[in-house]
Amino acid sequence: MRSFDLAPLYRATVGFDQIADLMDRVLATTASETNYPPYNIEKLADGSWRISIAVAGFASDELFAEVRENALIVTAKKADDSTERKFLHRGIATRAFERRFHLADHVRVTGASHVDGMLHIDLVKEVPEALKPRRIEIAKAGVQDANLVEAKAVN
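Above: the chain's sequence. Below: its structure in C-alpha cell form.
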C-alpha cells in the first residue's frame, strides 16, 4: 500500500485541521491493527447512534469506556484467573483490547449497557441552541411597523 505525506496540506491550509487529521487516521492503517473485537455501528434515528461491541467472556467490571478529546475509548482487561484450567480448544478470545472511535462535534455518550456478551454504547448529537439555524422575519416593502417612529427633518 502506498503511503501519502500530508505535510504540504498542513502548510497550505488554515482551519482545516479536522479534515487533515481525518485523512491521517484513514491513511494510517497498519498491519498491527486488528479487527478484534468485532463491532457494529447502527443509526437509530436522525442524530442518534448505537455502537455494539462483541465482548464475549468479559464481565461488566472488566470493561471500561471513556470520552476524551472527542474520542470514545473502550478498553477491556481480563482479570487474572487464579484457577488453572486446561482447555482442549480455546476459541473465545479474552485478550485485552483498546478500541477508539472518533466522535464528531456535539456528539455525546448517553449511556452504556452490557447485555448477553454485547457492550452497547448509545450516542446522540446535541447541537447547542446558539448554533441551530433560526428563521428571520423579512418585512414587506411599503409596510411600516407600528413601533417605528418617523424621522422628521429639522431646519
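The longest helix spans residues 17-27.
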